[in-house]
Amino acid sequence: MAGIDTSHPYVPRDLHLPDFVPGFLPQSTILAVYGLSSFLVVSLVWLISGRAPKISKIDRLLMCWWAFTGLTHIILEGYFAFSTEFYKEKTPCYLAEVWKEYSKGDSRYAARDAGVVAVEGITAVLEGPASLLAVYAIGTKKPYNFILQFAISLGQLYGLAVYFIASYLEGDNFAASPYYYYAYYIAANASWSVIPLLIVIRCWKKISAASQVQDQKKSKAR
Amino acid sequence: MAGIDTSHPYVPRDLHLPDFVPGFLPQSTILAVYGLSSFLVVSLVWLISGRAPKISKIDRLLMCWWAFTGLTHIILEGYFAFSTEFYKEKTPCYLAEVWKEYSKGDSRYAARDAGVVAVEGITAVLEGPASLLAVYAIGTKKPYNFILQFAISLGQLYGLAVYFIASYLEGDNFAASPYYYYAYYIAANASWSVIPLLIVIRCWKKISAASQVQDQKKSKAR
Fold it and tell me: Which residues from A are below 8 Å from B121, CB to CB?
């Protein structure tokens, strides 16, 4: 049938991906590498931050989160943002495999939808390094640590909102099956909606409280 | 020539806009209405805030900005986000005229590009009402006023970044002429890059300073 491209596993089926090369690694391998590296990063940050004096458990957990999300943004999303033809990759490059696999849940990645690439580019270039700065800022109790965490989390939420709303407006038909829709498009993005939201609320409260303290001090000084 | 649609003034010329109805109002009228209403809003907020005690001039200017940008987000961008077929509007509806005219600088508006509609939707629904809340928060010196201004300004900058980057990725060929490119696409958006950036920097400093004061107070309390 005309317009149907059988060389790739993505939906919509009429998506044109010339020279597409199927993925080499099974889903389990891709997930295991990501899971194990993330576990390693989180464990390292947890252990190292535990040796520093007076860092609360919640701050140590936040340092783990920022290290994990920062490296994900820089490495995984950074690769995607600047690899215009990852789906043509002929060798089993792990980063290309990740996006060949994830595109089953959202083919806008393989199709290089401009909105998706714009959001991923901002995430990789600005939010990635800023997340690593947050690890440092929390560890050294910088006065800007809350506003920095607030800014990055808000950026993550904004990016996710654009990502989901644009997909909805375009018909929400980019997943190869309901399994990939829920496992990749919904579940894999869930952490980046819940955790940033919790951080935004926490930082909002902390910052408002600090402003109140400063206002009271000013009033007393008069 | 096939694929060329001569019924609309937008670029790319092969953009398909069935039942397009040309604008009725001249550019000067559209700009005059927007300019005068904005002047009225800004003057009103300036005068009213001047009667309240102890609001600094910079805070009064910020209240004017938030009232102006909030109403622009809610009314103009709100209309666009939810009017899927404004370009078919047969009567001289002012809001439809605005977007028929602006589309000469960026035809993604008439074409209802998903990324643009997503950004405009978030701006209208979240940032618009939040901007009006900022007018109130500054006027009543709420402890959350800086973090609120910071959050909205960051959202505006994020939206603008997605807006410009996505256009660049799609070939940056959406303006009917260089005049419309620079007057509408560049100049009309300039305020929403410069002013939010200044507010973000100011709030970052204020919030970091407040956190430092709180930290010192905590250290003393020990």
Answer: 165
pLDDT given at position B222? 62
- Structural domain contains residue A39: yes
B122 touches chain A (CB under 8 A): yes
Q: Which of B155, B169, B209 comes nearest A114 by C-beta?
A: B169
Q: What is the pTM of this model?
A: 0.95
Residue B5 within a domain: no
pLDDT, averaged per 10 consecutive residues of chain A (222 residues), comes to 69 94 96 98 97 93 98 98 95 95 98 97 98 97 96 98 98 97 97 97 94 77 66
Considering its fold, how many domains does chain B have in total?
1
Considering the domain boundaries, does residue A67 fall inside one?
A: yes
CA-wise closest residue to A10 among A99, A89, A117: A99
CA distances for A123 relative to A42, A165, B70, B162, B209, angstroms:
20, 17, 26, 11, 27
Rounded distance between C-alpha atoms, residue B17 and residue B27, angstroms: 21
Q: Is residue B112 part of a domain?
A: yes
Q: Band the pLDDT of B1: cuts 50, 70, 90.
A: very low
A104 lies in which domain range?
Answer: 27-221
By the CB < 8 Å criterion, does B201 face chain A?
no
